[in-house]
Design brief:
Elements (H helix, E strand, L loop, with lengths): L3 H12 L4 H10 L2 E4 L22 H15 L4 E6 L7 H10 L3 E7 L17 H20 L4 E5 L3 E2 L7 H17 L6 E5 L9 E2 L4 H11 L3 E6 L9 H10 L3 E6 L16 H14 L5 H8 L2 E4 L8 H19 L4 H9 L3 H12 L4 H11 L5 H6 L3 H4 L11
Parallel strand pairs: 1-2, 1-10, 2-3, 4-6, 6-8, 8-9, 9-10
Antiparallel strand pairs: 5-7
Helix pairs in contact: 3-11, 5-6, 8-9, 9-11, 12-13
Bound molecules: 6-deoxy-beta-L-fructofuranose (LRH) and manganese (II) ion.
Manganese (II) ion binds next to loops.
GO molecular function: L-rhamnose isomerase activity
InterPro entries: L-rhamnose_isomerase, Rhamnose_iso-rel, Xyl_isomerase-like_sf
Keywords: Isomerase, Manganese, Metal-binding
Length: about 400
């Protein structure tokens, strides 16, 4: 049963030459990985607020991720972070995920919370610390093998706080040395995502500060290494969708960490602060899926879409569901772009025609379409409302207060 609004939407889009059946198919196939740490207590340097019902261990984080998947139908995997999700038996964790209808997604090493890494991990001047950091990276590859994950997602906090504090070129060499060893330990089907960030926790230089450094390193390492774009990791005014188009054309875009921000790495709900940017990122990806180069098309079709947020004040599971719905909304709008019209306007240097042909898609209300897609997938047409009515919010309260941080 589809509503009148949907029929009207379908008619308008069909008259625009948009194949709604194809659009719905694409929306149903867009898999969005949620982060285990998004279900735990997290905060800022000022306070980590503890809430009731927070998962107490990795197994309960997977339970919450499974609830998000049951309600949205598009979150079949959960990323884990080591040691935040360290368990005795990783096979058992993968089995639990499987039992809950999920699989373990990207394995994220953590080289930013051990005391020894205060002045760097793989870039530390002390070879013993670099060796320890490399050992952790290799341990995470072993974890990935035990949970049948093909993705290692690496972010390094390494950097300095003052000019002169370190030899930046020397650190660049140590970084490559360790990552080359990590790369050589990967199984053939594995991918190494290299995540960059322009500052924080380092406040003078960061060893992997921008897309160019990550891109160069991924090229140096090899075909299995790609760049991960965290939408909160750029200086104000950075054209993120341009970076995305560049990395796509170089077949070096591996994945995203979706979140949004107003100022710095605020890790707010994706699509809240700057929904047009998210829409334009999807515009570049869908445009690349039509590229003459098969390698570029393949790269655009193999992107790992992951959410990376820490919900400081928001109720965790509703915040995650809202995030997934926001990603679907901007993806659905981008699927309504009339790419033939855009291309024609571009070839005619019709500046306003081209701009309009892209923006007009952003202005469509796609909520009737998403309701019908969810109906056809057999998931609730309003996942947030369904969550509130599910009884799960009450059920998890028995966990008490003081669950896992991250
Ligand atoms: C760093 C980062 C990284 C994660 C962490 C939780 O800011 O984006 O991806 O390891 O957040
Ligand atoms: Mn991230």
């Amino acid at each position: 049963m589809s509503d009148k609004a949907y029929y009207l939407f379908e008619e308008i889009q069909t008259n625009r030459g948009i194949r709604i059946d194809k659009v719905k198919e694409k929306i149903k196939k867009l898999a969005i990985e949620t982060p285990s740490w998004g279900y735990g207590d997290s905060g800022t340097r000022f306070k980590v607020f503890q809430k009731a019902g927070i998962p107490r261990n990795a197994f309960e984080k997977i339970d919450d991720a499974a609830m998000v998947h049951r309600l949205t139908g598009v979150c079949p995997s959960v990323a884990i972070h080591i040691p935040w999700d360290k368990v005795e038996d990783y096979g058992q964790l993968a089995e639990h995920a499987h039992h809950q209808g999920l699989r373990i997604g990207a394995v994220n090493p953590n080289l930013f919370q051990d005391n020894d890494y205060m002045l760097g991990s793989v870039c530390n001047v002390d070879p013993i610390v670099r060796k320890k950091a490399l050992a952790h990276l290799l341990e995470c590859v072993q974890v990935a093998k035990e949970v049948q994950s093909d993705n290692i997602s690496l972010w390094l906090a390494d950097g300095t706080n003052y000019p002169g504090q370190a030899n930046l070129r020397q650190r660049k060499h140590w970084l490559y040395e360790s990552l080359a060893e990590l790369y050589s330990s990967l199984l053939p089907q594995m991918r190494l995502f290299i995540e960059y960030k322009f500052f924080e926790p380092a406040f003078y230089h960061t060893d992997l500060a921008d897309w160019g450094m990550a891109f160069h390193l991924a090229n140096q390492l090899g075909q299995q290494a790609q760049v991960l774009v965290d939408t909160g990791h750029h200086a104000q005014g950075t054209n993120v969708e341009h970076i995305v188009s560049y990395l796509l054309d170089e077949q070096k875009l591996g994945g995203f960490h979706f979140n949004s921000r107003k100022y710095a790495d605020d890790d707010l709900i994706v699509g809240t602060m700057n929904p047009y940017e998210l829409f334009l990122i999807f515009y570049q990806i869908l445009d690349a899926e039509k590229d003459v180069d098969a390698g570029v098309r393949k790269t655009a079709e193999n992107i790992a879409y992951m959410i990376d947020q820490s919900h400081v004040i928001e109720p965790k599971i509703p915040a995650m569901i809202r995030s997934v719905m926001n990603v679907q909304t901007q993806y659905a709008k981008a699927l309504c772009i009339d790419f033939v019209k855009v291309r024609q306007a571009q070839l005619e240097n019709d500046v306003l025609g081209a701009e309009n042909a892209v923006r007009e898609a952003f202005e469509f209300d796609v909520s009737p379409l998403l309701r019908v897609v969810r109906e056809e997938m057999g998931v609730p047409v309003d996942p947030l409302q369904a969550y509130e009515a599910s009884g799960y919010p009450k059920q998890i309260l028995e966990r008490g207060v003081g669950g896992a941080s991250w």
